[in-house]
Design goal:
With about 300 residues, the protein is of the alpha/beta class. The chain contains eleven helices and eight strands. Helix content is about 45%, strand content about 10%. It has an eight-stranded parallel β-sheet with strand order 7-6-5-4-3-2-1-8. Helix 5 links the parallel strand 3 and strand 4. Helix 9 runs parallel beside helix 10. The longest helix has 18 residues. The radius of gyration is 19 Å and the shape is globular.
Length: about 300
C-alpha cells in the first residue's frame, strides 16, 4: 500500500491506497512531544522562532479598514520596546482588505495573506472562487489561504476537489497557496491524511488545518498526521510542503510543543517561516509576555499589549 497514493496520469492520487493512520500510536507520540524538557536558552530561541512564524489575523464580519491598518501597525511595531526580536511572517485578511493591508505595510517585508474561495464555508461556484483569488492577488496578496469543498470531499468526489485546488493554484500566479482542510469537519485522522495527500498532489504550497471558525480547530494529533503526510510526500517526490496549524493556539507553551513536534518529525529544514506558520490572533501577545518574563523575571500585564 502506498504511503501517499499513486497518482494517475492526471496527477490525482488513488486515495484508497493511502496508508491508514494508527490513531493510538499518534496519540502516544503526541503525548511524548509535550513532555520534553527545554533549557532556558533553547526556550528563548523557540519563542523568537514562534514570533517569526505567526500570521497575525483578523477575519471578522466587522473588520474595517481602520482595524486592518491597526493590525498592520501592530505587525510593524510589535515589540519596539524589545529590540532584536523578529517580526511576524504575515498579516492575514479578507480579500476586500488586501489593498488596505498592502498600503499600510508599505515597504516592510511582512507578507500579506488573504483567505479566498468563499472562506470559511467554501460554498460558492468555482468561477467566483477563482475571481476572488485573482482579485486578492491583483490587490497585492503574497499568499492565498483557500478552503477545500468539504462536502465534495466527504462524498468521495476527490476529482472535483483536486481540480478545484489545481485551478486556484493556477489563479494564484506567483502567490503561494495554503490549502485549508478544515479538519474539524473531516471527522477522522484517516480522512485528514487523505485530504493532505490530495492537496499536496494538486499543487498546495502549504497545507493548513483550519479556518478557526469550526471547533475543534488545530490539534496536535491532527497536525502530527499532516506533518507525517508531508514527510512521506517529500520522500516520494522531493518537494517540500509547508504546514500551518490555525485556530486555538493562543499560548506560547502550546506553540513550543508544536515546534518540538515539527523538529522531531520533519527536521531543521522546516523550522523557518518559509515552511511553517501559526495562524493566530492572540499568540503574539503571549509570546511577548513570555520573552519579557525570561528577560526580567516578571510578567507584564496583558494590558501592555494591543489586542488587535
Amino acid at each position: 500500500m502506498s504511503v501517499t497514493g499513486l497518482p494517475s496520469a492526471s496527477g490525482l492520487p488513488d486515495l484508497r491506497q493511502v496508508t491508514p493512520v494508527d490513531e493510538v500510536g499518534v496519540n502516544e507520540r503526541v503525548a511524548r512531544f509535550q513532555t520534553r524538557s527545554i533549557k532556558k536558552e533553547s526556550k528563548i530561541e523557540a519563542l523568537k522562532m514562534i514570533l517569526s512564524m505567526i500570521d497575525l489575523t483578523t477575519l471578522e464580519g466587522q473588520d474595517t479598514p481602520g482595524k486592518v491598518r491597526q493590525l498592520c501597525q501592530k505587525a510593524i511595531h510589535l515589540h519596539d520596546s524589545m529590540p532584536g526580536l523578529p517580526h511576524v511572517a504575515a498579516v492575514c485578511v479578507y480579500p476586500t482588505m488586501v489593498g488596505v493591508a498592502r498600503k499600510a505595510l508599505g515597504d516592510c517585508d511582512i507578507n500579506v495573506a488573504s483567505v479566498a474561495t468563499a472562506f470559511p464555508s467554501g460554498m460558492s461556484s468555482r468561477k467566483i472562487k477563482l475571481e476572488e483569488t485573482r482579485t486578492a492577488v491583483a490587490e497585492g496578496a503574497d499568499e492565498i489561504d483557500m478552503v477545500i469543498s468539504r462536502g465534495a470531499f466527504l462524498q468521495g468526489d476527490y476529482g472535483f476537489v483536486f481540480d478545484e485546488i489545481a485551478a486556484v493554484k493556477e489563479a494564484c500566479g506567483d502567490a503561494h497557496l495554503k490549502v485549508i482542510l478544515e479538519t474539524g469537519e473531516l471527522g477522522t485522522l484517516d480522512l485528514v491524511r487523505r485530504a493532505s495527500v490530495l492537496a499536496m498532489h494538486a499543487g498546495a504550497d502549504f497545507i493548513k488545518t483550519s479556518t478557526g471558525k469550526i471547533q475543534p480547530a488545530a490539534t496536535m494529533p491532527v497536525t502530527f498526521v499532516m506533518l507525517k503526510a508531508i514527510k512521506s510526500f517529500y520522500f516520494e517526490t522531493g518537494r517540500m510542503i509547508g504546514m500551518k496549524p490555525a485556530g486555538g493556539i493562543s499560548g506560547a507553551k502550546l506553540a513550543v510543543h508544536y515546534l518540538v513536534m515539527l523538529r522531531e518529525t520533519l527536521g531543521n529544514a522546516w523550522m523557518t517561516p518559509e515552511w511553517f506558520r501559526f495562524g493566530a490572533s492572540s499568540l503574539a501577545n503571549d509570546v511577548l509576555m513570555q520573552l519579557q518574563k525570561q528577560a526580567t523575571g516578571v510578567y507584564q500585564s496583558a494590558d501592555y499589549f494591543s489586542k488587535d
